[in-house]
Amino acid sequence: MLTTPVTPPHATQPLDKRDWIAGLEKGLSIIEAFDDEHPRLTASQAGTHCGLTRTAARRYLLTLQHLGYVTSDGKVFWLTPRVLRLGQSYLESAGLPRIVQPFLQRVTAGTQETAYMSVMDGDDIVYIARNGANRVMSTGYVLGSRVQAQVTAAGMLMLAARDQAWLDEWLATRELKAYTSYTITSKERLQVELARVRARGWALSEQQLELNYRGIAVPLRDRRGDVVGALSVTMPMGRESSEDAVARVLSVMTETAQGMRNLI
Description:
Blueprint lengths: L21 H11 L8 E2 H8 L3 H14 L2 E3 L3 E4 L4 H10 L1 H17 L2 E8 L2 E8 L14 E3 L4 H8 L3 H9 L14 H14 L2 E4 L6 E9 L5 E10 L5 H19 L4
Helix pairs in contact: 2-3, 5-9, 6-8
């Protein structure tokens, strides 16, 4: 059973106002304003998104341009590849992605499926390590990919590990987006599914994010037994039943996750 809380990677201690640098927060919020729906922004659009005036947003954008993180044609701004240095710094400095890589290789060898390590960040899961062949998926599970937690096996697993009070509050303040006709958009049904995941200690997600694909996930625990992430595999559904797929991969994944426990 999943009985321990997830330790969120972004958890922080309360910050004294004397130590808070508002400009840093606003500058990072400008960078985060760019996404697949907003690849290019004017200063006014960036300001609206971040709660800033056009003038203030423009100053932040021009500073980021000077530092090489954005570029502009004089009217609109867009990110440059230099922003990838921020994510690369995490992958190079954090020990977890390096520790899990040999274990992901073991899962791939034992299941013939692509294996992933992911962690929670806000409402999303983030893939921080992977091993296996690339699949032709529109969602593109590459390092650093972010996906809403409730539509993946790994995300459902980490949500299920939360205590019920936290989960009730989370569901009350979220809108469940439909990605396919199979996506769970009912909060009541999601509660039932998460309870099932919590009871059995592993998660199965089918066609929630991508048609004809399934994911299976098991928890990764540290030495204290806290859930710090999820080990998962994704696969085309093909003609293999859910029961057969779980029977084929679950023991390999569970044994691998157990072997990692003393190293995290």
